Amino acid sequence: MDPSTTSRRGFLKLAGLAGISATAVGTLAACGGGTQPTQPGAGGSAAAGGGAAGSGASYWFLSGQPQQAVREESVKRFNGANAGTEIKYTEFQNDAYKTKIKTAIGAGQGPTIIWGWGGGGLREYVKNDQVEDLTSFFSENAALKDKLFPSAFEAATVDGKIYAMPAETVTPIVFYYNKRAFDKIGAQPPASWGEIMALVPKFNEAGIAPFSLGGQSRWTNMMWLEFLLDRIAGPEVFQNAFSGKAGAWSDPAVVDMLTKIQDLVKANGFIKGFSSITADSNADLALLYTGKAAMMVHGAWTYGTMKKDGGDFVSSGSLGYMNFPPVEGGKGDPSNSVGNPAQYYSISSKATDAEKTTAKKYFSTTVLDDTEIKAWADNGSVAIVKGSNASFSGADAPFLNFIYDTASNAKSFAQSWDQALPAAAAETLLDNIAKLFQLSITPQQWIDNMNKVIGS
């Protein structure tokens, strides 16, 4: 999932509040299309060839409030403390950025500091020798590395080396449930896959859909597979696919995952007509908070929408949430999570030594400093820093603490598959996942189709 494509898939969105404070949280909305000019005080637009003139550096990142303001203030703080080595930033909306950054980096004219999503995109940069190896930087700045969530480094690492600084915030996928619906059938939240399957007929008999799902959007279906494969086999099987290992999808755990999800579909585990429901409309969320569905697997960012649109559903304590339950006999650690473990800052390999030095100083002195950590918390987000939960307060603190605990305690935090894989493989993945949920392909056909695009 792309953490900045839309507000629903972006960051934690605790909406419906006029001000921004530690207890009232705003929308970390995302962006799409077009560019914005460099903001006042930014010092001009990014220069060609990887950086600004002199010993300064250039930085391109996404616009969209309030995260845009946090990024701007971070650069301005650095510039104020480092006269003569300023960073000049340029802001882009999401779609324009994706196009512009690839073109610029390919032409050797990208910025010094590259804002990104890690995973498959970062691997492409590494393959083409376009970004700096930061492994030694983190060895020399062990305290910096130690203060960040360890799980955030997975999507920053390629072949055992670190090529990006994990930054900003974390948004895992959450297992939500409607406590009122469970009270109606006298049941408890499921503690295993077997209990999930046992609940399905009970909810159906009560006229309540077991699970809400915006299946037309495809990536919503993907979250189920991400968790199931992890709970069955741990993170290694997907890691093999991500690494381009031939036949990686042929692992028996994949067959088990695909069979289990089709068993759930056949048992009417999802709302009727789920393949025509879009996540963009938030109809899937409405099914949960109106009690038409009992459970939902979705991103942390949906909490704010349910709070804003769901009447007293959140404020009354009727919304339940937990990590995805284990699968009987599975090898995956139940603390593992999936979703968006962080955002990622890389340094262009084409930048001058002086520009690289400026970028590294920015990483080590200003990125995720105490001021930035508080700024993210004030916006209702969880910075990827150990102890960032000290800033949580108010009615939303329990949920924010749950997100913090999930992310900080995860032994593995897998990046969303459609971000981790290269673009061609990701599109094939989403297409085949939709067909899998529609029961129009078998597990073996799914595996065969996915093995064909490994490494693409």
How would you describe this protein?
By secondary structure, the chain is an alpha/beta fold. It folds into two domains: 31-170 and 341-386, D-Maltodextrin-Binding Protein, domain 2; 172-338 and 416-451, Periplasmic binding protein-like II (D-Maltodextrin-Binding Protein, domain 2, 3-Layer(aba) Sandwich). Helix content is 40%, strand content 12%. The chain has helices spanning 67-81, 94-106, 119-127, 135-140, 142-147, 179-185, 193-205, 219-233, 236-242, 252-266, 283-289, 302-309, 353-365, 370-378, 397-409, 417-420, 423-437, 443-451; strands at residues 57-62, 87-92, 113-116, 157-158, 161-162, 165-167, 171-178, 209-211, 293-299, 319-322, 337-340, 343-347, 413-415. Strands 7, 8, 9, 10, 11 and 13 form a six-stranded mixed beta sheet that branches. It has a five-stranded mixed beta sheet with strand order 2-1-3-12-6. Strands 4-5 form a two-stranded antiparallel sheet. α1 (67-81) runs antiparallel to α14 (370-378) and α8 crosses α10 (252-266). The longest helix is centred in the N-terminal third of the chain and has 15 residues, at 67-81. Mean pLDDT is 87; it is low at 2-53.
